[in-house]
Amino acid sequence: MIRDTAETFGIISEDNRFRVVPKAGSVFVLQADCWKVTLIGDKLSPKEKLKESQRLQRAQSLIR
């Protein structure tokens, strides 16, 4: 990966071409040696982070 924006990743593919991949609706799997990391694109977008923080605030206010 060489570029990370709010809604996309810019990557260099195996055929040495630059590709722009949207985060929404994508699942990214990165593997190095024995480590495997899965990133859910929908959870990486700032809109999703805002929604999640709003859900947490509502839940906390209901508990109190």
From TrEMBL:
GO terms for cellular component: nucleus; ribonuclease MRP complex; ribonuclease P complex. One of its GO terms (biological process) is tRNA 5'-leader removal. Its main location: nucleus. It is found in: Nucleus. Pfam families: RNase_P-MRP_p29 (PF01868). One of its GO terms (molecular function) is ribonuclease P RNA binding. Belongs to the eukaryotic/archaeal RNase P protein component 1 family. This is Uncharacterized protein.
